[in-house]
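Take a record:
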Amino acid sequence: MIYTAQTKKALLLCFEAHRDQVDKSGMPYVFHPFHLAEQMTDEQTTVAALLHDVVEDTSYTFRDLEQMGFDGDVLAALRLLTHAEGEPYMDYVARLKENPIAKAVKLADLSHNSDLSRLDPEEIDEWALKRQEKYRKAIDFLKS
C-alpha cells in the first residue's frame, strides 16, 4: 500500500463509508477496496481503488469527495467507475477504458469479483457463474 496524505484520507473514508456493509459471502465489505488498493502502484490509483464504490454504495456524493480535497483526476476516474442505474453494463465498461486510473482499478475490481473462492461452495450457483463470465468478458475488453 502506498501511504500518503491522500491515501490515508481515502483509507479512513473507505473504512467509515463501508463500516457496516458486508459482501456477498458475509465478509466485511471494506476488505474488497483494501484488496484492490494493495495492488495499485501509485497514489491516484490507490485512492481511486479505496473509493471506487463509495458514491455508488453509500450516502457520500461526488460533492462530498470534492469538498474533502480529493484530486481532480481521481474524481474523474471515480465518476467513470460509478455505474449509473439503467446503463448497459458493457457501455459502462467501454466508457472507462481510456482512463488509465479507472481502467487499472476496474481490472483489479473485476478480477477480485470474479474470484469464486471468495464464496462458500453452496453460493456458487448459476447466477455466480454467469456473473463471473460477464466479468471475464469485461476484463478481455479492457485488456484489448
